[in-house]
Amino acid sequence: MDARATTESITQLAADALTGTKVVIDATEVHQAGRRRLVRIFLARDVSDLPEDDTTSAVEPLTLDEVAEATRSVSDALDSSDVMGQSPYTLEVSSAGLDRPLTTRDQFRRNVGRLVKITTTAGTTTTDRLTSVETDGEADLLTLAKTPHTPIALTEVATALVQVEFNRRDGKDD
Asked: Structural domains in the chain?
């Protein structure tokens, strides 16, 4: 089985193990590390149950308990399947960190209310608070606090990273 098929198989197996929870697979990476394989699974809060017209509410981050429970479920699923074959592997499960770029609509939606640094495909860079993520029927659009009447199409975003804030203006701690 090639590496891509293994990654896809692991992702599907892990996703199936998390069915019914409020946790989804954000990304899966498989790397060769000597004789072992390193399997990294990044988790995120499931936003599929949010109403379509809710484009602005904050999404709670995963708790340590949710990550721990998801780790047990994914580990049990991998151990009871033959997806890894006879190869030894190390499993790492975590939530996506701040250093992971935002690339999908769901990733942006989970970060409404946070400060993000966005570089567009045109080369402009801005750091601003993400206030909404919506779909106008054709494109996913991001709205920032400083430019509420000029949404950015998700397809125009080259890179986007959540920024660390130690003292939020509204007094909320993340």
From this structure: 3-95 (3.30.300.70), 105-162 (2.30.30)
